[in-house]
Amino acid sequence: MSQNSAFTASDLSQLPKPTAVEQIDFETLRKEIIDQLSGYSPLLFDGAGEPVLMQAERYTDETTGEVYFRVPADDQDTLQYLDREVHPMARWANVTAYRVMVERQRFNQRSLGLMLAYSEDDDLDQIGANFSTPRLVVDHGDPDAIPPRPKVMEDNESYRRRIQLSPERISTAGPEGSYIYHALSADADVLDANVQTPVFDLVNGSIVIIDDADIYRVKPGHLGINIISRTGDGTALQALIEKVEAALSDKKVRPLNDVPVVRSAFIIDYEIDATIETFNGPDSAVIIAEGRKRVEKYVSDMRRIGMPIYRSMIKAALGVAGVKNVVVNKPASDLIPNQRECGYCTGITLTEA
User: Fold this and answer.
1) For the packed helices 176-186 and 238-248, what is the interaxial angle rounded to 10 degrees?
2) Which of 1, 198, 261, 312 could form a disulfide with 213 if both were Cys (CB 3.0 to 4.6 A apart)?
3) Residue ranges per domain, the chain?
4) Where are the strands (E) in 21-65, listed by range?
């Protein structure tokens, strides 16, 4: 039984929305504009229903000191303010409120683009540049092919994870996060990596191996680096293993006495088969399609070394609005990989009850 790697980066998806992002409501903006306009020049109607435009006077409350505008006292009993949508100023307020809402939303999006948890695409590339971590090329493509095959770059979530881990590389002590970062950065085909460390003890003056971390002829200083590939079922080919091993053996990366041993994680195949019962009403195909989308995301999120697959989580993912009951037929039990194993979903079958 090897000593498991306990390194986990913070889950950025669980962070609360930043206070810099303002919640925007059209009706609130419109009311603010209407109130301000009516304070200076209220639209009033007399007893005969005729519109009267009056200038409000500035008034200071003697008790509270609050300053506001009001209609002159001698006209308050005969005039009443009404918010009429047909009035030109009301229509102007609608347009202004909409424009303000759009501009504030643009500001929100630009603010989020500066934050690692929410940044996407080109904005994320700029954040990566600040950490000297460029986006990796998954497939260089072929511009001469017919039709041309475009270049495929590292996806946002994988890139975001490497940026988050990038400060870990600034170390000469060989922390887990540093090895994981350099393994992920060695090649875009590396989907995940973790670290297993052997355990030794000194017994009667001799070094005794307590846990060899599945390393052949293990010695002090050896480290097990487990990786999985993006392609196929995740089994890392020898060429990829050698590339990662070369990257981790660089003198600028590896502490002097560390000997990283890179190997592929063992892949455990599993299948998801579930029966879904829906309520009468909307098209059940739409409901099941949404359930498939959510369970596919769960499978994708759990495609990491040592990550468990729980039947309860599969059931929860399939329990979308409109679902009456879910019966998970496969897997028959929870899948609990060790730190050198990774689950791989071979297929998802959803049947309507």
Assistant:
1) 130
2) 198
3) 26-112, 115-264, 267-352
4) 43-45, 51-53, 57-60
User: Are 198 and 222 contacting, i.e. CB atoms less than 8 angstroms apart?
Assistant: yes
- Count other C-beta atoms under 10 Å from residue 332's C-beta: 10
Contacts by 71-76 with C-beta closer than 8 Å and gap 24+?
A: 71/42, 71/44, 75/44
**Beta-sheet strand order (sheet of 259-264):** 190-196, 222-229, 259-264
Residue-level length of the chain: 353
* 8 Å CB contact between 176 and 183: no
Closest by CA to 324, choosing from 297, 353, 349, 296, is 353
Phi then psi for residue 229, to 5 deg, are -100, 155
Residue whose C-alpha is closest to residue 162's, from 187, 180, 189: 180
191 to 110, 137, 231, 233, 320: CA distances (angstroms): 30, 13, 9, 11, 29
> For position 253, what pLDDT does the model report?
77
Q: How far apart are CA 203 and CA 36, in angstroms?
A: 83
For 179, list phi and psi in degrees, rounded to 5: -65, -40
Q: Give the model's pLDDT for residue 326.
A: 94
pTM over 0.85: no
- Return the structure tokens found at 65: 């000191």
- 45-66 pLDDT, tens digit per residue, is 556 666 565 556 666 778 877 7
**Both tokens assigned to 245:** 């091993």
| 127 contacts 120 by C-beta, under 8 angstroms | no
pLDDT at 92: 77
Q: What is the pLDDT of residues 174-208, one digit of tens each?
A: 678 888 888 998 899 999 999 988 888 888 888 88
CA end-to-end span of the chain, whole Å?
43
Token pair of 153 as six digits? 């770059």
Question: Which portions of the chain are predicted below pLDDT 70?
Answer: 1-15, 17, 19, 35-59, 67-89, 171-174, 282
Q: Which residues of 140-179 are buried (b: 16+ CB within 10 A; e: fewer)?
A: eeeeeeeeeeeeebbeeebbbbbbbbbebbeeeebbbbbb
pLDDT at 61: 74
